[in-house]
């Protein structure tokens, strides 16, 4: 019986590949990789030589049935993304859904992911947290998410590209205000790993002076009680809106 392994790969430091991940990558019939060139370099470095099939967001709809057919024939496939966990802001979800529909076992391996790595060193409470992945690039849609984060009493986490970071933090400041604490976790597990901590206002000013470079995870600290709208207050507001004919 074939199966699908979901195999995390390092987010920077090559030593973060697990013993099991390496063994599975060597034992499977095929490795489905988001970018065969990028993964080829990684696999070479960790000493894995195996057949690769390209599987990314643009060919996933057409490629998924082909991979399902292989697994039905009894082939074992390991899915990897460019870095970190497949499915987490990376391709893989469609294939997992298709395997479940077709009664094919999905076997996840634990391993590195940027958001969890950032969260545990952020100093913010990890219970509860919300992970948003990449936010929309549209300011109006971003603001809708920031409204949710503003009153959430847990830690909010998202990814952002360096060239959009300053604009995104400026939008965040408009909604949440300048005083809430944030952490920008940069280049995790790499030489230039850095945690930039401070209020939204301070960090926005910092990046206005020092252009962001590298890969970033952004964490917003939990809302304090007084920053949340209580259900009672919300009901009062809804009733007022209804009464005023909205
Ligand atoms: N699958 C990956 C994971 O499990 O975290 C995420 C892939 S997503 C396409 C790439 C984004 O993840 C980057 O733009 C950045 O926001 C974040 N990221 C990945 N590696 C990182 C690192 N070493 N340090 C900080 N952020 C990282």
In terms of structural class, how would the helical and strand content be classed?
alpha/beta
Q: What is the share of helical residues?
A: 40-55%
Characterize the biggest β-sheet: 5 strands, parallel
Which radius of gyration do the C-alpha atoms yield? 21 Å
Shape: globular
InterPro entries: 4pyrrol_Mease, 4pyrrol_Methylase_sf, 4pyrrole_Mease_sub1, 4pyrrole_Mease_sub2, rRNA_ssu_MeTfrase_I, SAM_MeTrfase_RsmI_CS
Subcellular location: Cytoplasm
Function: Catalyzes the 2'-O-methylation of the ribose of cytidine 1402 (C1402) in 16S rRNA.
EC number: 2.1.1.198
Structure notes:
The chain is α/β, with parallel strands linked by helices. Helices cover 41% and strands 20% of the residues. The chain is built from nine helices and ten strands. The strands form two sheets. The protein has a five-stranded parallel beta sheet, with helices on both faces. Helix 3 crosses helix 4 and helix 6 crosses helix 7. The structure holds S-adenosylmethionine (SAM). S-adenosylmethionine binds next to helix 5 and strand 10. GO terms for molecular function: rRNA (cytosine-2'-O-)-methyltransferase activity. InterPro entries: 4pyrrol_Mease, 4pyrrol_Methylase_sf, 4pyrrole_Mease_sub1, 4pyrrole_Mease_sub2, rRNA_ssu_MeTfrase_I, SAM_MeTrfase_RsmI_CS. Pfam families: TP_methylase (PF00590). Its main location: cytoplasm. Belongs to the methyltransferase superfamily. RsmI family.
């Amino acid at each position: 019986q074939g199966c699908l392994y979901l195999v995390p790969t390092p987010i920077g430091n090559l030593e973060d590949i697990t013993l099991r991940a390496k063994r599975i990558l060597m034992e499977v019939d095929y490795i489905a990789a988001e970018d065969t060139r990028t993964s080829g370099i990684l696999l070479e470095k960790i000493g894995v030589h195996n057949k690769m099939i390209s599987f990314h967001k643009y060919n996933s709809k057409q490629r998924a049935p082909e991979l399902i057919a292989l697994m039905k024939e009894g082939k074992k496939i390991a899915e990897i993304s460019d870095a970190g966990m497949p499915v987490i802001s990376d391709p893989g979800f469609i294939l997992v859904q298709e395997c479940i529909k077709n009664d094919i076992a999905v076997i996840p391996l634990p391993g590195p992911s940027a958001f969890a790595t950032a969260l545990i060193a952020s100093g913010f409470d990890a219970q509860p947290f919300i992970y948003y992945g990449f936010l929309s690039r549209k300011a109006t849609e971003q603001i809708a998410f920031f409204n949710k984060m503003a009153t959430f009493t847990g830690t909010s986490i998202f990814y952002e590209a360096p060239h959009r970071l300053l604009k995104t933090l400026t939008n965040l400041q408009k909604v949440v205000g300048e005083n809430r604490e944030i952490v920008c976790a940069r280049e995790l597990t790499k030489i230039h790993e850095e945690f930039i901590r401070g209020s939204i206002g301070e960090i926005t000013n910092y990046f206005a002076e020092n252009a962001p470079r590298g890969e970033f995870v952004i964490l917003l600290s939990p809302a304090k009680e007084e920053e949340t709208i209580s259900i009672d207050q919300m009901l009062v507001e809804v009733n007022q809106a209804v009464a005023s004919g909205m």
